[in-house]
Structures are given as structure tokens and as C-alpha cells.
Amino acid sequence: MRLINVETLDLQEFFGASIPPYAILSHTWGKEEVTLQDWQDPVRRIRKTGFAKIEGARRQTRRAGFQWLWVDTSCIDKSSSAELSESINSMFAWYNRSAICFAYLEDFVISGTEEDRSTTARVGSSRWFTRGWTLQELLAPRDVHFYDRTWKRIGSRNNALVKQIEAATGIESDYLMGTTKVKSASVARKMCWVSGRRTTREEDMAYCMLGLFDINMPLLYGEGAKAFVRLQEEIVRVSTDHTLFCWQWQPSTPRDWASLLAPDPSVYRHSRRVERKTDDGRRHETSKRSQEVSTYLMTNAGLSIRLPVLYTWSGYLVALEARPTVNDYTWRNEFAQFWLPLYGEQRADQLYVQRQAVPMGPVILDYSLHEFASRRSIIVRKEQAKQTSANGTSWFASPEGAQQQSDRLYGCFFMFRSSRLRDRWLHDATSDVSREAVISW
């Protein structure tokens, strides 16, 4: 780890336990940033526009009583792909271990004092809150001190600005202030935090989240959207959090998308209130046989997983170990659970399935439905198979325009205990020219 000596402006490299206490700068990149190569030449570095904010950070570091400062533009050799990869994989830890973090908002100017709420209320409009990389820079440090373009102090994350930051980012104040650990947040919730952010390089939308998920993986610039899929495959490898699969179809989602893995972070936009379902001792007695631990892995054919399965008219419902937050105003049933509609086919004892666009995401049903479900091994395809009988069938009879309503969709599922019973139902229904049926219960 290279650090800038704020007294001499010399760069020095440290390793492991020898790393001294240091301040760290969080900022958005602009024109003429000072690179590591620029820093070696004292004349060239001061001519760069980006030197002014480093000088401001240097003054704040000295004022805070520290000798060392880390700035990403000047302390990483980006001409070395190996060093760049190591640095990006270490970034979250570096921000987390910093003694103090300065967030520089180049596009924001404060008027009046720090207590002037009419000004601080606008802090969330800064570009800093829209970038992918600054998410981990917001969450990893012990605290973040914000400064405007003139290096006038705006406030701190843990105190004066917590409500404004929560409103701007959708991140609950408990996570911002550290009373709830970021690592305890569900995968879907973390994805939601980044869903509205942007990066210059498409791959960086995945790479900027490595630290949030405690994932290490090599960087492959040029892989495009595959980087985000690769990130999810790494999460699958180390996590049992089913909220990863709780995303909603968006207009930008490829129509032929088949996988349970998401195509990009934007599909988690409405997943803020999704959490893992754990055994809290309040499960229905009828569902005890479904308490088997779910293990899964990525194979060459797709995601292999065992889940409780219900047979529906045109496909399957699988139970995810995920639920809406208990205090969610839209669903207060403590036994609510997310079930994911899929379609596909059965070959021997194996189900080969894929996602479909309608409904747009998992549906909320009662946990007691486990009584009618059987735990099955399924393969979720990576790519869409040829047309199946379920394709084009709407799961819902919903009001016009309901596709735009992400939180409330209503419909009716016909469920069967087995595929044989479902096939018999479909055969009898389609072979009867009168198309009449009687349902009794």
C-alpha cells in the first residue's frame, strides 16, 4: 500500500502490520487527475487540475494529526494490471482501516454554517452519491467527513448528515451509523443500494461491489456484463442467501433471460425490503419436513439446487429462503415467504426450468404452502431453452397497467401435488370440447 507523506509529499510503500495510521480521500474523478507517474514529477503534478483537491486533503490530514494520506489516483499504478486488480480487491479493507475519511464533493458548495439545514438538505444531490465506487467508500470507513468544493466542512455521516444520506441513498441509518453491521444486510438489499448508481466502465458495476460481499476475484476488463454474472457466481459459491434470486424483470432485461442470476444491478431496484428467512422457532408445524438446509452450486448446465416445489397450471413455484421484512407495511404476515414462478420440463427425477418475465419477480405467499410442496432437485438453465408449453402463459389476471406496479400484483395459482396430477388436469381440460370444469374444496 502506497501512502503520501503529507509533510514531504513523498510516496512510501508499506505492507501488512507496518502500515501506519492514515487518512483516506473519497472523491469522484474529473479531468486531469494526478496519476502515480505524474506524482513522481513535482512540476508536472502541480500543473494538473486534480492536484488542488489532493492539496486540500493534505491540509485536512495534517489538521487531524496524521502524517499519511491515501488517494486512489496517485497511489495506485494503473499501468500495471496486476497491481490494479490487487488494489480493487483490497479497496474496501483500505477504507475500513483508515483512521479518517474525507469525502470531497466537487460539485457542492455550502453557504452558512454546518447547522444550516437549508443547505445540508441538498447534499444528496451531489454526483458523489450516484457513483458505483463511492458506495463502499460511504459504508466501509468508521465515519465519513464531507467537504464542499472549497473544503468547507458540511458534516459527517454518523451525525449531522445521516438523515440526508439515508434519503439520498436508500440506505437505512442503522447501517450508516454502524449500529447494524453492513455484512448482515441481505444480498438483495446490498444490490438495491447499488442499483441506481453508475460507473464509467460496465465491468466496474461488479468490481465496485467486491468488498461489500467480501469477494475476491480477478478483473477482466472487456468482459462487459459477464462481470456481474461472474460476481453472482462467486456469491453463490460462498453464500446460502436466496435473496440473490429476488430480483424483478425490467424493460431493459433481455427477453430471453433464463437464469436465476440477475442480468445487471438495476433489477434489484425494488429489493430493499427483502431479507433472508431464518428458522426463528415460529414455523408452522406442517412445514417441519421442509427444514432441510438448501445447498446449491453452479454447473455447466446451470444452477443446481434443491427447493420445495409446487406444481401449477403452467409451470412450477419454488420456495426461496427469503421473505419481506417483518415490518414491511405492504405485508405484515410473519409467515410470508417469497416463491419464484418458473417453467420448464421434467426429465426422470430432474426438473429443468428457467425464469420468465411474468410475473416480474418472486410472489409473496404463506409459508404453510410447504405442506403441499415436495423438495426436488432442479437445474435452472443458463440460457433459454426452446419454446415450452408454459411460455406465453400469463400467471396473473391483473388490472391494466399492473406491470408498472412493482409492489402489488394479484392473481390466482392452480396448484397440484404432482406433475402427473397436473398433466391429467390439463389433458382433461383441453380434451373436453365444452371447456367446462368444476373446482371443489
Report on the architecture of this protein.
The strands form 3 sheets. A 7-stranded mixed beta sheet has the order 2-1-4-3-5-6-7, with helices on both faces. It has a 5-stranded mixed barrel with strand order 10-11-13-14-16. A two-stranded antiparallel sheet has the order 8-12. Among the domains are: 2-184, no CATH class; 293-384 and 411-427, no CATH class. It has 441 residues and is of the alpha+beta class. The chain is built from 13 helices and 17 strands. The N and C termini lie far apart (69 Å).
Task: Please give a quick description of this structure.
The chain has helices at residues 36-39, 42-47, 51-64, 72-75, 81-97, 117-120, 133-139, 162-169, 173-177, 187-195, 204-207, 226-238, 419-431, and strands at 2-5, 11-13, 22-26, 68-70, 100-104, 144-147, 153-156, 274-276, 296-298, 302-312, 315-319, 322-324, 336-347, 350-354, 363-366, 374-381, 415-416. With 441 residues, it is an alpha+beta fold.
For the residues shown, what is the average pLDDT? 85
Strand order of the largest sheet: 2-1-4-3-5-6-7
N-to-C order of helices and strands: EEEHHHEHHEHHEEHHHHHEEEEEEEEEEH
Q: Total number of β-strand segments? A: 17
Number of helices: 13
Subunit arrangement of the protein: single chain
Residue ranges: pLDDT <50 for 5 or more in a row? 281-287, 388-410, 429-441
Residues in helix, %: 10-25%
Shape, per Cα inertia axes? elongated
**Largest sheet entry:** 7 strands, mixed
